[in-house]
Amino acid sequence: YSNLYSFNQRQFEKDDDWSAGFGLKAWIYVPKACQANATVPSSISRGRSDGKGTDNNGNEKSGNDKASLDENEGDMCPLFVWFNPCGDDGLHYDVGAFEGWAETNSIVVLRPTVIRNNCELRGSAHGCGGAVTRGCWDVYGYHGKDYAKRSGPHMRLANRVIQYVLDRRYTDAVGGN
Q1: What pLDDT digit, counting tens, does each position of 24-78 carry?
Q2: What value does the mean pLDDT of the chain take?
Q3: If we measure between CA atoms, which residue out of 79, 70, 78 comes closest to residue 47?
Q4: How far is Cα 17 from Cα 157, in angstroms, rounded to an integer?
Q5: Are 19 and 120 a contacting pair, CB within 8 Å?
Q6: Residue among 176, 161, 173, 162 at smallest CA distance from 35
Q7: pTM, two decimal places
Q8: Quick one: which of 92, 110, 81 has its CA closest to 170?
Q9: Where does residue 58 rank: exposed (0-12), middle (13-18), buried (19+ CB within 10 A)?
Q10: Which residues pair with 54 in a beta bridge?
């Protein structure tokens, strides 16, 4: 997949996240229309529900006008964050399954990853105690009642990854290649 990239998501771990089971790489699929310097019809809404694009001054453009992401600094393609379900075992190829859907709808697909048995990778000195044994997002809850809240370690990391990608306009986040 030419538009499938990975980047190191471990850079977003904090000291209190050591046992959260995060994988080394996050995966992101960036459709052609969402790449830096892409020229696409402004009818691709890039986040606008009315299908109209805007110029640098916020003026609406007709659906036939062409616009690049650089010209529309504030416009970005929608972001879909996929938290892989159990049974996936941490494989990345499934992000590519979104290729047709992502290209057709100009939607960026981001997948923060988790891995199986993080305790074995980090050693038992931390006393993992059952943290993330299946390598999927829907088994969390081992880290307290806040596991699904913004204050939980998994959502804190996911939020940091998402913010990193948004701040760097997708392809800049992964080097644009």
Answers
A1: 788 888 898 888 776 544 444 343 334 444 444 445 544 434 344 444 445 678 9
A2: 65
A3: 78
A4: 8
A5: no
A6: 176
A7: 0.65
A8: 110
A9: exposed
A10: 60
| CA proximity to 84, closest of 52, 66, 109, 105 | 109
Residue-by-residue DSSP string for the chain: -TTEEEEE-GGG--GGGTTS-B-SEEEEE--GGGSTT-EEETTS-TT-TT--EE-TTS-EE-TT-EEETTTSTT----EEE--PPTTSTT-SGGGGGGHHHHHHHT-EEEE--B-S-HHHHH-GGG---S---SSSGGG--TT-TTTTSTTSHHHHHHHHHHHHHHHTTGGGGGTT-
Amino acid identity at 21? G
Amino acid at 139: V
Query: Given this model, what pLDDT does residue 44 score?
Result: 42
Q: How far is CA 61 from CA 65, 138, 144, 177, in A?
A: 6, 42, 49, 30
Look at the chain and count its residues. 177
Contact 61, 95 (CB under 8 A): no
Cβ distance 68 to 39 under 8 Å? yes
